[in-house]
């Protein structure tokens, strides 16, 4: 079950990152984050009310609140990086996020089996190769690299925090709702301050109503990924769940190949194969 939910996480995050990066090429990154997370918060609010999630309120929600503060910084940084550089080059750097939850798992005493250790090494190597490098292409801006490193640290922290935010399904809905409301509050405040400074917070044509379905998809896919990761982390070793969930750059790179016609080089195809092999080793280890 851990492998299944963690792989679902990588699929959802990969598609959300692709969509977010694409939208950020047309709209300010902060606006993309705030609008997409607002839609997710609204949907989660309905789910929490329908499942009586408020009965699960407790001290663990502070983890969700902290994740909600870190999340917008990570998403904003990553969406900006994806807009600045080729997705197939930028996205692999985000796999460094796996270091945070893996370190937490090892600190808590988790010891993966030898086969799983091999799977971790193969999967991480495969993700890096699958995303790039784009040999002979344009150099990636230094700003994009730094933004991606900031995002990786943020995503890894959210991984660790959201896994501790609940122990039940209804509690998970409430935790995700609190996280998203915090996302919107923090991002909305930053958006307001940006507008006050005269920074453009909307594209030239005004609010991107035509992009609203895509923005909604990004927000809902992101929150669903947080949920599936939390389930994966509670049903198996965090080290395994985190590595499998970190395969999302492969999804982003393949989406860029399919929709943007970014060329998939031989080294990237080999990386995708290694990522699949590492996944199989983790799942059977």
UniProtKB/TrEMBL annotation:
Give yes or no: UniProt keyword Transmembrane helix: yes
Please name the Gene3D superfamilies in this protein's record.
1.10.3730.20
Q: What UniProt keywords apply to this chain's record, in alphabetical order?
A: Membrane, Transmembrane, Transmembrane helix
Q: Which residues form the EamA domain?
A: 3-130, 144-283
Instruction: State the InterPro entries in the record.
Output: EamA_dom, EmrE-like
Q: Where are the transmembrane segments?
A: 28-49, 61-79, 113-132, 144-163, 169-193, 214-232, 238-259, 266-284
Q: Key word Secreted present in the record?
A: no
The family classification in the record reads:
Belongs to the EamA transporter family.
**Protein name in the entry:** EamA family transporter
Task: Tell me which species this is from.
Answer: Streptomyces tropicalis
The upper taxonomy is: Bacteria, Bacillati, Actinomycetota, Actinomycetes, Kitasatosporales
